[in-house]
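Thread: Acetate kinase, structure

OP (GT): Posting the sequence first so everyone is looking at the same thing. Length is 402 residues per the record. Can we get the C-alpha coordinates written out before standup tomorrow? I want them in the notebook alongside the other entries.
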Amino acid sequence: MIPALIILNAGSSSLKFQVFEIVDDAEPRLVWKGLYEGLGGAAHFIVRHAGGADLDEMSWASADVFGHEEALMHLVSWLRGHQDGRKLAAIGHRVVHGGEAFPGPELVDESVLRSLETLVPLAPLHQPHNLKPIQIMRRRLPELPQVACFDTAFHQSQSDIASLFALPQEIRERGVRRYGFHGLSYDYIASVLKDYDPHLAEGRVIVAHLGNGASLCALRGGTSIATTMGFSALDGLPMGTRCGAVDAGVVFYMLREMKLTPEAAERMLYTKSGLLGVSGLSNDMRVLRERATTNPDAKRAIDLFVYRITREIGSLVAALGGIDGLIFTAGIGENDVATRAEVTNSLGWLGLVLDEAANRTGGPRISSGQGPTAWVIPTNEELVIARQTRSLLGATQASLAS
Ligand code: ADP
Protein backbone atom coordinates (compact mmCIF):
# COMPACT_ATOMS: atom_id res chain seq x y z
CA MET A 1 0.00 0.00 0.00
CA ILE A 2 1.21 3.52 -0.78
CA PRO A 3 0.81 5.87 2.22
CA ALA A 4 -1.37 8.91 1.50
CA LEU A 5 -1.61 12.17 3.44
CA ILE A 6 -4.59 14.51 3.59
CA ILE A 7 -3.50 18.13 3.98
CA LEU A 8 -6.24 20.37 5.38
CA ASN A 9 -6.68 24.12 5.49
CA ALA A 10 -9.94 24.85 7.31
CA GLY A 11 -11.87 28.11 7.39
CA SER A 12 -15.17 29.08 9.03
CA SER A 13 -17.31 27.65 6.22
CA SER A 14 -14.74 26.02 3.96
CA LEU A 15 -12.33 23.15 3.94
CA LYS A 16 -9.52 23.11 1.38
CA PHE A 17 -7.76 19.79 1.00
CA GLN A 18 -4.96 18.17 -0.95
CA VAL A 19 -4.03 14.51 -1.03
CA PHE A 20 -0.39 13.51 -1.40
CA GLU A 21 1.18 10.10 -1.74
CA ILE A 22 4.51 9.21 -0.20
CA VAL A 23 6.79 7.05 -2.29
CA ASP A 24 10.14 6.23 -0.68
CA ASP A 25 12.21 9.32 0.03
CA ALA A 26 10.91 11.35 -2.90
CA GLU A 27 9.11 14.66 -2.48
CA PRO A 28 5.42 14.07 -1.48
CA ARG A 29 3.46 13.77 -4.73
CA LEU A 30 0.18 15.63 -5.16
CA VAL A 31 -2.64 13.34 -6.32
CA TRP A 32 -5.83 15.39 -5.84
CA LYS A 33 -6.86 18.79 -4.58
CA GLY A 34 -10.29 20.02 -3.68
CA LEU A 35 -12.59 22.16 -1.65
CA TYR A 36 -15.75 22.04 0.41
CA GLU A 37 -17.46 25.42 0.60
CA GLY A 38 -20.71 26.74 2.03
CA LEU A 39 -20.36 24.40 5.01
CA GLY A 40 -23.28 24.73 7.42
CA GLY A 41 -25.49 25.97 4.55
CA ALA A 42 -25.79 24.92 0.91
CA ALA A 43 -22.50 23.01 0.72
CA HIS A 44 -20.53 22.18 -2.39
CA PHE A 45 -17.65 19.73 -2.94
CA ILE A 46 -15.24 19.73 -5.84
CA VAL A 47 -12.12 17.66 -6.37
CA ARG A 48 -9.60 17.92 -9.19
CA HIS A 49 -6.65 15.90 -10.43
CA ALA A 50 -3.19 17.28 -9.58
CA GLY A 51 -2.99 18.66 -13.13
CA GLY A 52 -6.22 20.65 -12.66
CA ALA A 53 -8.79 18.53 -14.54
CA ASP A 54 -12.13 18.16 -12.73
CA LEU A 55 -12.65 14.72 -11.20
CA ASP A 56 -15.79 14.82 -9.05
CA GLU A 57 -18.33 17.27 -7.70
CA MET A 58 -21.33 17.20 -5.35
CA SER A 59 -23.80 19.63 -3.76
CA TRP A 60 -26.00 19.53 -0.68
CA ALA A 61 -29.10 21.61 0.14
CA SER A 62 -29.16 23.81 3.25
CA ALA A 63 -31.61 21.39 4.84
CA ASP A 64 -28.99 18.60 4.70
CA VAL A 65 -27.06 20.25 7.59
CA PHE A 66 -23.73 19.49 6.01
CA GLY A 67 -20.96 20.98 8.18
CA HIS A 68 -17.25 20.36 8.84
CA GLU A 69 -17.84 16.97 10.45
CA GLU A 70 -19.95 15.73 7.55
CA ALA A 71 -17.38 17.07 5.07
CA LEU A 72 -14.52 15.25 6.81
CA MET A 73 -16.42 11.97 6.91
CA HIS A 74 -17.40 12.44 3.27
CA LEU A 75 -13.76 13.07 2.33
CA VAL A 76 -12.53 9.94 4.13
CA SER A 77 -15.17 7.80 2.46
CA TRP A 78 -14.54 9.45 -0.94
CA LEU A 79 -10.85 8.58 -0.54
CA ARG A 80 -11.70 4.97 0.35
CA GLY A 81 -13.74 4.79 -2.84
CA HIS A 82 -10.74 6.06 -4.84
CA GLN A 83 -8.04 4.15 -2.92
CA ASP A 84 -6.26 2.55 -5.87
CA GLY A 85 -3.50 0.97 -3.76
CA ARG A 86 -3.22 3.87 -1.32
CA LYS A 87 -3.80 3.88 2.44
CA LEU A 88 -4.59 7.00 4.44
CA ALA A 89 -1.59 7.36 6.79
CA ALA A 90 -2.04 10.76 8.43
CA ILE A 91 -3.59 14.22 8.24
CA GLY A 92 -1.47 17.37 8.18
CA HIS A 93 -3.25 20.56 9.27
CA ARG A 94 -2.50 24.18 8.64
CA VAL A 95 -2.72 25.87 12.04
CA VAL A 96 -2.20 29.60 12.09
CA HIS A 97 -0.74 29.94 15.60
CA GLY A 98 1.80 27.77 17.37
CA GLY A 99 2.65 30.40 19.97
CA GLU A 100 5.97 30.16 21.80
CA ALA A 101 5.48 26.49 22.68
CA PHE A 102 5.62 25.09 19.13
CA PRO A 103 8.64 26.14 17.07
CA GLY A 104 7.96 23.35 14.55
CA PRO A 105 5.31 20.84 13.46
CA GLU A 106 3.76 18.77 16.23
CA LEU A 107 2.01 15.41 16.41
CA VAL A 108 -1.31 16.26 18.06
CA ASP A 109 -2.31 14.49 21.26
CA GLU A 110 -4.74 15.67 23.91
CA SER A 111 -2.21 17.91 25.68
CA VAL A 112 -1.03 19.51 22.41
CA LEU A 113 -4.64 20.18 21.45
CA ARG A 114 -5.36 21.78 24.85
CA SER A 115 -2.27 23.92 24.44
CA LEU A 116 -3.31 25.02 20.92
CA GLU A 117 -6.77 25.90 22.22
CA THR A 118 -5.19 28.34 24.68
CA LEU A 119 -3.89 30.28 21.63
CA VAL A 120 -7.41 31.00 20.32
CA PRO A 121 -7.41 34.52 21.85
CA LEU A 122 -4.23 35.30 19.86
CA ALA A 123 -5.88 34.44 16.52
CA PRO A 124 -9.63 34.44 17.19
CA LEU A 125 -10.67 34.52 13.54
CA HIS A 126 -8.44 31.67 12.37
CA GLN A 127 -7.33 29.34 15.18
CA PRO A 128 -10.78 27.94 16.15
CA HIS A 129 -11.50 26.96 12.53
CA ASN A 130 -8.05 25.38 12.12
CA LEU A 131 -8.53 23.30 15.28
CA LYS A 132 -12.06 22.17 14.51
CA PRO A 133 -11.12 19.36 12.07
CA ILE A 134 -8.43 18.15 14.48
CA GLN A 135 -11.02 17.88 17.26
CA ILE A 136 -13.49 16.11 14.95
CA MET A 137 -10.96 13.62 13.59
CA ARG A 138 -9.65 12.80 17.08
CA ARG A 139 -13.19 11.82 17.97
CA ARG A 140 -14.12 10.06 14.73
CA LEU A 141 -10.82 8.38 13.74
CA PRO A 142 -8.70 8.42 16.92
CA GLU A 143 -6.06 6.04 15.51
CA LEU A 144 -5.17 8.33 12.60
CA PRO A 145 -2.05 10.45 13.31
CA GLN A 146 -2.65 14.18 12.99
CA VAL A 147 0.13 16.75 12.62
CA ALA A 148 -0.27 20.48 13.20
CA CYS A 149 1.94 22.73 11.02
CA PHE A 150 2.14 26.36 12.04
CA ASP A 151 2.25 29.69 10.19
CA THR A 152 4.22 31.17 13.08
CA ALA A 153 6.95 28.51 13.36
CA PHE A 154 9.19 29.72 10.52
CA HIS A 155 9.68 33.07 12.28
CA GLN A 156 11.03 31.57 15.52
CA SER A 157 14.50 32.21 14.10
CA GLN A 158 14.01 35.97 14.62
CA SER A 159 16.05 37.72 17.27
CA ASP A 160 14.62 38.75 20.61
CA ILE A 161 14.78 42.39 19.52
CA ALA A 162 12.97 41.75 16.24
CA SER A 163 10.10 40.08 18.08
CA LEU A 164 9.76 42.53 20.98
CA PHE A 165 7.07 45.17 21.46
CA ALA A 166 8.09 48.15 23.59
CA LEU A 167 5.51 47.21 26.22
CA PRO A 168 5.83 46.64 29.97
CA GLN A 169 6.96 43.27 31.20
CA GLU A 170 3.57 42.25 32.62
CA ILE A 171 2.10 42.35 29.08
CA ARG A 172 5.10 40.68 27.44
CA GLU A 173 4.96 37.86 30.00
CA ARG A 174 1.52 36.94 28.67
CA GLY A 175 3.08 36.08 25.29
CA VAL A 176 2.33 39.47 23.71
CA ARG A 177 5.14 39.77 21.13
CA ARG A 178 5.62 39.73 17.38
CA TYR A 179 5.09 36.21 16.01
CA GLY A 180 4.71 36.66 12.26
CA PHE A 181 2.54 34.56 9.92
CA HIS A 182 2.52 33.06 6.39
CA GLY A 183 5.48 30.98 7.60
CA LEU A 184 4.49 27.92 5.58
CA SER A 185 4.63 30.01 2.42
CA TYR A 186 8.00 31.55 3.34
CA ASP A 187 9.35 28.11 4.23
CA TYR A 188 8.43 26.90 0.72
CA ILE A 189 10.00 29.91 -1.00
CA ALA A 190 13.19 29.55 1.08
CA SER A 191 13.36 25.87 0.12
CA VAL A 192 13.29 26.54 -3.63
CA LEU A 193 15.43 29.70 -3.88
CA LYS A 194 18.51 27.67 -4.78
CA ASP A 195 16.70 26.28 -7.83
CA TYR A 196 16.22 29.83 -9.16
CA ASP A 197 19.56 31.33 -8.16
CA PRO A 198 22.04 29.79 -5.65
CA HIS A 199 23.19 33.31 -4.76
CA LEU A 200 19.68 34.09 -3.45
CA ALA A 201 19.59 31.08 -1.16
CA GLU A 202 22.64 32.47 0.66
CA GLY A 203 21.70 36.13 0.35
CA ARG A 204 19.39 38.89 1.61
CA VAL A 205 15.94 38.32 0.20
CA ILE A 206 12.55 39.96 0.74
CA VAL A 207 9.52 37.81 -0.01
CA ALA A 208 6.23 39.59 -0.72
CA HIS A 209 3.36 37.18 0.01
CA LEU A 210 0.50 39.16 -1.53
CA GLY A 211 -2.81 37.29 -1.37
CA ASN A 212 -6.03 38.01 0.50
CA GLY A 213 -3.75 38.01 3.50
CA ALA A 214 -0.50 39.85 2.79
CA SER A 215 2.86 40.17 4.48
CA LEU A 216 6.56 40.58 3.76
CA CYS A 217 9.42 38.54 5.15
CA ALA A 218 13.14 39.30 5.24
CA LEU A 219 15.25 36.18 4.72
CA ARG A 220 18.96 35.95 5.34
CA GLY A 221 20.45 32.66 4.16
CA GLY A 222 16.90 31.28 3.97
CA THR A 223 15.94 32.06 7.58
CA SER A 224 13.45 34.69 8.71
CA ILE A 225 14.97 37.71 10.42
CA ALA A 226 11.99 40.11 10.26
CA THR A 227 8.42 40.23 9.00
CA THR A 228 5.59 42.75 8.74
CA MET A 229 2.96 40.76 10.63
CA GLY A 230 3.22 40.83 14.39
CA PHE A 231 1.07 39.65 17.28
CA SER A 232 -1.96 39.00 15.11
CA ALA A 233 -2.67 38.52 11.43
CA LEU A 234 -3.85 42.17 11.33
CA ASP A 235 -0.48 43.91 11.37
CA GLY A 236 1.73 45.16 8.55
CA LEU A 237 0.40 45.59 5.01
CA PRO A 238 -3.21 46.46 4.13
CA MET A 239 -4.89 43.24 2.93
CA GLY A 240 -8.10 42.20 1.18
CA THR A 241 -10.30 43.02 4.16
CA ARG A 242 -7.76 43.60 6.98
CA CYS A 243 -6.40 47.01 7.83
CA GLY A 244 -2.70 46.24 8.31
CA ALA A 245 -0.78 48.45 10.73
CA VAL A 246 -2.84 51.18 12.33
CA ASP A 247 -1.98 53.40 15.26
CA ALA A 248 -3.21 51.62 18.43
CA GLY A 249 -4.90 54.93 19.29
CA VAL A 250 -7.40 54.28 16.49
CA VAL A 251 -8.71 51.27 18.40
CA PHE A 252 -9.29 53.37 21.55
CA TYR A 253 -11.10 55.93 19.41
CA MET A 254 -13.36 53.21 17.97
CA LEU A 255 -14.17 51.92 21.45
CA ARG A 256 -14.51 55.20 23.31
CA GLU A 257 -15.85 57.70 20.76
CA MET A 258 -17.64 55.42 18.30
CA LYS A 259 -18.88 53.23 21.19
CA LEU A 260 -18.13 50.04 19.26
CA THR A 261 -17.97 46.82 21.24
CA PRO A 262 -14.57 45.05 21.09
CA GLU A 263 -16.22 42.44 18.84
CA ALA A 264 -17.58 45.07 16.43
CA ALA A 265 -14.22 46.86 16.34
CA GLU A 266 -12.46 43.57 15.64
CA ARG A 267 -14.91 42.76 12.86
CA MET A 268 -14.33 46.16 11.29
CA LEU A 269 -10.54 45.79 11.33
CA TYR A 270 -10.53 42.17 10.10
CA THR A 271 -13.40 42.06 7.62
CA LYS A 272 -14.36 45.58 6.50
CA SER A 273 -11.00 47.28 6.05
CA GLY A 274 -8.05 46.91 3.68
CA LEU A 275 -8.70 47.00 -0.07
CA LEU A 276 -12.43 46.53 0.55
CA GLY A 277 -12.65 49.30 3.15
CA VAL A 278 -10.69 51.87 1.15
CA SER A 279 -12.36 51.13 -2.20
CA GLY A 280 -15.84 50.57 -0.75
CA LEU A 281 -16.11 48.15 -3.64
CA SER A 282 -14.23 44.86 -3.38
CA ASN A 283 -11.39 42.99 -1.72
CA ASP A 284 -10.55 41.35 -5.05
CA MET A 285 -7.57 42.88 -6.84
CA ARG A 286 -8.97 41.80 -10.24
CA VAL A 287 -12.12 43.84 -9.68
CA LEU A 288 -10.14 46.85 -8.43
CA ARG A 289 -7.80 46.78 -11.45
CA GLU A 290 -10.78 46.63 -13.82
CA ARG A 291 -12.43 49.61 -12.15
CA ALA A 292 -9.34 51.70 -11.30
CA THR A 293 -9.52 53.89 -14.42
CA THR A 294 -13.10 55.00 -13.74
CA ASN A 295 -13.45 54.67 -9.99
CA PRO A 296 -11.09 56.89 -7.93
CA ASP A 297 -11.69 54.88 -4.74
CA ALA A 298 -10.60 51.66 -6.43
CA LYS A 299 -7.43 53.43 -7.61
CA ARG A 300 -6.83 54.84 -4.14
CA ALA A 301 -7.06 51.37 -2.54
CA ILE A 302 -4.48 49.99 -4.99
CA ASP A 303 -2.21 53.02 -4.58
CA LEU A 304 -2.26 52.65 -0.80
CA PHE A 305 -1.53 48.91 -1.07
CA VAL A 306 1.49 49.55 -3.32
CA TYR A 307 2.70 52.50 -1.23
CA ARG A 308 2.60 50.45 1.99
CA ILE A 309 4.42 47.53 0.34
CA THR A 310 7.24 49.77 -0.91
CA ARG A 311 7.57 51.54 2.46
CA GLU A 312 7.70 48.27 4.37
CA ILE A 313 10.24 46.87 1.91
CA GLY A 314 12.41 49.87 2.77
CA SER A 315 12.16 48.93 6.45
CA LEU A 316 13.10 45.31 5.78
CA VAL A 317 16.04 46.37 3.59
CA ALA A 318 17.28 48.29 6.64
CA ALA A 319 16.83 45.20 8.85
CA LEU A 320 18.78 43.10 6.32
CA GLY A 321 21.46 45.72 5.65
CA GLY A 322 20.76 45.56 1.90
CA ILE A 323 18.90 43.43 -0.61
CA ASP A 324 19.93 40.79 -3.15
CA GLY A 325 16.49 39.66 -4.29
CA LEU A 326 12.78 40.44 -4.15
CA ILE A 327 10.27 37.62 -4.59
CA PHE A 328 6.57 38.04 -5.43
CA THR A 329 4.20 35.23 -4.47
CA ALA A 330 0.53 34.32 -3.65
CA GLY A 331 -2.60 35.38 -5.61
CA ILE A 332 -1.70 39.02 -6.31
CA GLY A 333 2.08 38.50 -6.32
CA GLU A 334 1.86 35.64 -8.80
CA ASN A 335 -0.80 37.13 -11.08
CA ASP A 336 -1.05 40.89 -10.93
CA VAL A 337 1.46 42.24 -13.44
CA ALA A 338 0.66 45.85 -12.54
CA THR A 339 1.28 45.47 -8.79
CA ARG A 340 4.66 43.85 -9.48
CA ALA A 341 5.56 46.64 -11.91
CA GLU A 342 4.48 49.46 -9.59
CA VAL A 343 6.33 48.01 -6.58
CA THR A 344 9.52 47.19 -8.51
CA ASN A 345 9.59 50.55 -10.30
CA SER A 346 9.27 52.40 -7.02
CA LEU A 347 12.35 50.56 -5.76
CA GLY A 348 14.66 51.85 -8.46
CA TRP A 349 16.68 53.59 -5.72
CA LEU A 350 17.79 50.10 -4.60
CA GLY A 351 19.11 49.35 -8.09
CA LEU A 352 16.12 47.19 -9.07
CA VAL A 353 15.34 47.42 -12.80
CA LEU A 354 12.07 45.92 -14.05
CA ASP A 355 12.16 43.75 -17.17
CA GLU A 356 8.71 44.73 -18.51
CA ALA A 357 8.45 41.88 -21.01
CA ALA A 358 9.47 39.21 -18.48
CA ASN A 359 7.04 40.69 -15.96
CA ARG A 360 4.17 40.46 -18.46
CA THR A 361 4.84 36.75 -19.02
CA GLY A 362 5.38 35.96 -15.34
CA GLY A 363 9.16 35.64 -15.26
CA PRO A 364 10.31 33.82 -13.25
CA ARG A 365 13.00 36.51 -13.28
CA ILE A 366 11.41 39.92 -13.89
CA SER A 367 14.43 42.20 -13.46
CA SER A 368 17.36 43.11 -15.64
CA GLY A 369 20.67 44.76 -14.92
CA GLN A 370 23.41 44.14 -12.40
CA GLY A 371 21.57 45.13 -9.21
CA PRO A 372 19.26 43.11 -6.97
CA THR A 373 17.00 40.69 -8.84
CA ALA A 374 13.20 40.40 -8.77
CA TRP A 375 11.30 37.14 -9.24
CA VAL A 376 7.85 35.56 -9.41
CA ILE A 377 7.78 32.25 -7.53
CA PRO A 378 4.45 30.44 -6.98
CA THR A 379 4.07 29.40 -3.36
CA ASN A 380 3.03 25.94 -2.18
CA GLU A 381 2.03 25.89 1.48
CA GLU A 382 0.35 22.49 1.22
CA LEU A 383 3.57 20.86 0.02
CA VAL A 384 5.37 22.25 3.08
CA ILE A 385 2.68 20.76 5.34
CA ALA A 386 3.05 17.42 3.53
CA ARG A 387 6.84 17.56 3.92
CA GLN A 388 6.59 18.42 7.61
CA THR A 389 3.94 15.76 8.27
CA ARG A 390 5.97 13.12 6.51
CA SER A 391 9.22 14.01 8.23
CA LEU A 392 7.59 14.13 11.67
CA LEU A 393 6.03 10.72 11.19
CA GLY A 394 9.27 9.05 10.27
CA ALA A 395 9.98 9.77 6.64
CA THR A 396 9.91 6.27 5.23
CA GLN A 397 7.12 4.59 3.40
CA ALA A 398 7.33 1.58 5.73
CA SER A 399 6.81 3.59 8.92
CA LEU A 400 3.98 5.61 7.40
CA ALA A 401 2.30 2.53 6.01
CA SER A 402 2.41 0.61 9.29
P1 ADP B 1 -5.62 33.67 0.06
O1 ADP B 1 -4.88 34.55 1.03
O2 ADP B 1 -7.11 33.64 0.29
O3 ADP B 1 -4.99 32.31 -0.19
P2 ADP B 1 -4.82 34.21 -2.67
O4 ADP B 1 -3.37 33.96 -2.51
O5 ADP B 1 -5.64 33.23 -3.44
O6 ADP B 1 -5.51 34.51 -1.29
O7 ADP B 1 -4.97 35.66 -3.34
C1 ADP B 1 -6.22 36.25 -3.58
C2 ADP B 1 -5.98 37.56 -4.29
O8 ADP B 1 -5.28 37.32 -5.51
C3 ADP B 1 -7.24 38.34 -4.64
O9 ADP B 1 -7.07 39.71 -4.39
C4 ADP B 1 -7.33 38.13 -6.15
O10 ADP B 1 -7.95 39.21 -6.78
C5 ADP B 1 -5.87 38.10 -6.53
N1 ADP B 1 -5.73 37.48 -7.86
C6 ADP B 1 -5.94 36.19 -8.21
N2 ADP B 1 -5.76 36.05 -9.54
C7 ADP B 1 -5.44 37.25 -10.03
C8 ADP B 1 -5.15 37.77 -11.33
N3 ADP B 1 -5.15 36.98 -12.40
N4 ADP B 1 -4.84 39.08 -11.44
C9 ADP B 1 -4.83 39.89 -10.37
N5 ADP B 1 -5.11 39.48 -9.13
C10 ADP B 1 -5.40 38.18 -8.95
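GT: Both are above now. Quick notes for whoever picks this up: The chain is about 40% helix and 20% strand. Residues 296-320 form the longest helix (25 residues).
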